[in-house]
Structures are given as structure tokens and as C-alpha cells.
Input
Amino acid sequence: QVQLVESGGGSVQAGGSLRLSCVASGFTASSYCMGWFRQAPGKEREGVVTISSEGITTYAESVKGRFTISKENAKNTLYLQMNSLKPEDTAMYYCAADPSGRYLFGNCRSRIKDERLAYWGQGTQVTVSS
Output
């Protein structure tokens, strides 16, 4: 049974940092396309960053240079390090995974836009105050 469990959200002031974690079970995260997505109140969900099975990352322009995605294969865990947080980063953050892991042939490169990932976590709330 595939499961994704996020943690690490919270409240922080602008300019601060948070690290989100997503523990995966029921599959090997290193072979999957995985990513972080977010949804702010009253807005559509948007892709933040994805990482392919080869480790190729795709970031949204709004977070480039501030957020970093990483995997710890031994723990089957995905991370999102968020620095220089802004109030507009306030949202529910979701971890997602899809078995078509490769960047080109698995089309992981498109997932940040089409969000066609098979598995989703329940989300963790991030609130950034000014």
C-alpha cells in the first residue's frame, strides 16, 4: 500500500526557513517521480518542484534559489528545504509520487505543470507572516 506522510510545516516569519519531510512507504521512492505541490486559500494548486528517478529537478520560477528538493534513499524520504520564506509561500504543501520516474521517458519533466502523479499525501501547512 503506497503511503506518503508529510511533516515539518509550521508558522514562521518572513525570511525564515523550514524543512518539510515526506516519508514514503509501499514503494521505492528513488525510482519514482516525486514532487512538492502547494495550494493557498482561494487559489489553485501549483507545482513547486519535482525530481525524477535520475535526480533531475524542475523548480517553479517563484521558488528558484530559495527552495531545494532532495531525497534520502536510505530512509525513503523526500525533503523540501525552504529558505528566505515569503508571505506568498503560505499554503498547504503536498508531497506526490508517480511510478513513471524518468525525466524524459517517464515524462517526469511535465509533472510540475500537469500534476498527473498517482499518489498524494495529506499535506502539511506552512504559514509565513510578514
Remarks:
- The mean pLDDT is 97.
- The helical segments are 111-114.
- The first strand starts at residue 3 and ends at 7.
- The CA atoms of residues 100 and 121 lie 18 Å apart.
